[in-house]
Write a structure and sequence with these properties.
There is one protein chain. The protein is an alpha/beta fold and 410 residues long. The chain has one domain. 55% of the residues lie in helices and 14% in strands. It has 14 helices and 8 strands. The protein has an 8-stranded mixed β-sheet with strand order 3-2-1-4-7-6-8-5, with helices on both faces. Strand 1, helix 2 and strand 2 form a beta-alpha-beta unit. Helix 6 packs across helix 12, helix 9 crosses helix 14 and helix 10 packs across helix 14. The chain is globular. The model has no long low-confidence stretch (mean pLDDT 86).
């Protein structure tokens, strides 16, 4: 068996194995997906909104937070204007009851969150990006989990706001699937990312952790791993809904994902001591190792794919040169039926199994979130087939950027 084919087999095997694990978790914990934990009391909360050049969305975000169904005397809203060059700061200052801090220059999201954390008075800290919206009852649905003193943070169900074009609808499907996966991870005590769209933390846990890592590309992943390292748990509420405005152009999606994936690689190295470590339970023995193996397989498949086709192309060019560019002579030597047989016997079968499992998980995710799938069936089929290939390329480019030590930009 050719080594490239073996790697392809292995990559698909890993994907199929993990998909089966998620489906088993869903079946075993069917009732637990929609459980509610009502609070005995409502603790005070400080909402931190870091913002950099967000004049188009900051007003909507602040109005959304002001509209929370939560006692106003227990709610504090702090906007950190991170050296914006537009009207972000001025717009924020126009809202009564909102504290606005101004950074003289752009320092980054983690730095802004840390500055807000220093003056926050709430027992809980809520972080929300300046291009996000929330449902009014979201905070009430999340604070009940903090009755357990071992809970360090709680994550919401994150959806895409008002998807319009093809790319936004593709991400909409992805986010719905991630809602299901994040809840499944909660059952394993393995949530390793606290997304910046209304994740809630114990203030004292953040203070013990020393705040957010200001040198990290994905501070929401880094702080989640640090919370686990400190011995706390992270929960999720499937019914606590927040919304993000996702990239509407491929260029912006590329920039976002390269940052996310480089951050994931950065944190894998930083927290490598957790890998295969029974001290961290399912997170150390299952999730982080499987994530590491999966990413390694994805990146390897990308570079194998590139190497295979570059080699094939250069070989064909050389042969054309030797036969004075007679195309028919070159193609006579190619065993097309052999290539087709190899593809059908290997990649196609694995791909079909993967697509079927992915389609089932996506369908169940839509059911759990009470979302309609009929309107976008063609879009989601494309998501299952095409997007994994594109994200594979993104992972490969992210690794290349890390190896070449290109400047890390938020």
């Amino acid at each position: 068996m050719h080594w490239a084919t073996a790697i392809n087999y292995f990559a698909w095997y890993v994907f199929v194995f993990i998909s089966v694990v998620w489906i088993i978790l869903m079946i075993e914990n069917k009732k637990g997906f929609l459980e509610e934990r009502k609070p005995k009391r409502l603790p005070s909360a400080s909402v931190l909104i870091p913002a950099y050049n967000e004049e188009k969305t900051i007003g909507k975000t602040i109005r959304s937070v002001l509209g929370l169904n939560y006692p106003k005397n227990k709610l504090e809203i702090i906007v950190i204007n991170d050296g914006s060059k537009d009207k972000t700061g001025k717009i924020a200052e126009g809202f009564a009851g909102v504290k606005v801090l101004h950074n003289k220059k752009n320092r980054g999201k983690a730095c802004s969150l840390n500055r807000g954390l220093k003056i926050a008075k709430g027992e809980l800290i809520v972080c929300i990006d300046a291009d996000s919206l929330v449902e009014p009852d979201i905070l009430k649905k999340m604070v009940g989990y903090f009755k357990d003193p071992k809970i360090g943070a709680v994550t919401p169900a994150l959806k895409v706001w008002n998807p319009k074009n093809f790319l936004e609808k593709i991400q909409y499907a992805e986010y719905i699937l991630n809602i299901f996966l994040r809840k499944a991870l909660a059952f394993l005590d393995s949530i390793h990312v606290t997304p910046g769209v209304f994740s809630v933390y114990r203030k004292d846990v953040l203070e013990k952790a020393g705040g957010f890592d200001e040198s990290n590309l994905t501070e929401d992943m880094e702080i989640a791993l640090r919370i686990h390292e400190m011995g706390y748990k992270i929960e999720n509420n499937l019914d606590a809904v927040s919304y993000t405005i996702c990239p509407d152009r491929w260029k912006n999606l590329f920039k976002q994902r390269i940052r996310w994936y480089r951050g994931a690689l950065q944190n894998t190295i930083k927290y490598r001591h957790m890998l295969f470590n029974p001290k961290y339970g399912n997170l150390g023995l299952f999730l982080l190792p499987m994530n590491f193996i999966t990413v390694l397989a994805i990146i390897t498949v990308f570079f194998v794919f590139v190497w295979t086709y570059v080699t094939m192309f250069t070989d064909m060019i050389w042969k054309l040169y030797l036969v004075n560019w007679d195309i028919s002579t070159v193609f006579q030597g190619i065993n097309l039926m052999g290539m087709v047989d190899s593809f059908v016997s290997a990649s196609l079968i694995f791909s079909l199994v993967g697509i079927i499992l992915g389609a089932y998980m996506l369908y169940k995710s839509f059911q759990l979130n009470k979302e309609r799938v009929r309107s976008y069936k063609k879009t989601y089929l494309i998501y299952l087939i095409v997007i994994p290939l594109i994200y594979t390329a993104f992972w490969g480019l992210a690794l290349l950027a890390e190896v070449l030590r290109l400047k890390r930009k938020w």
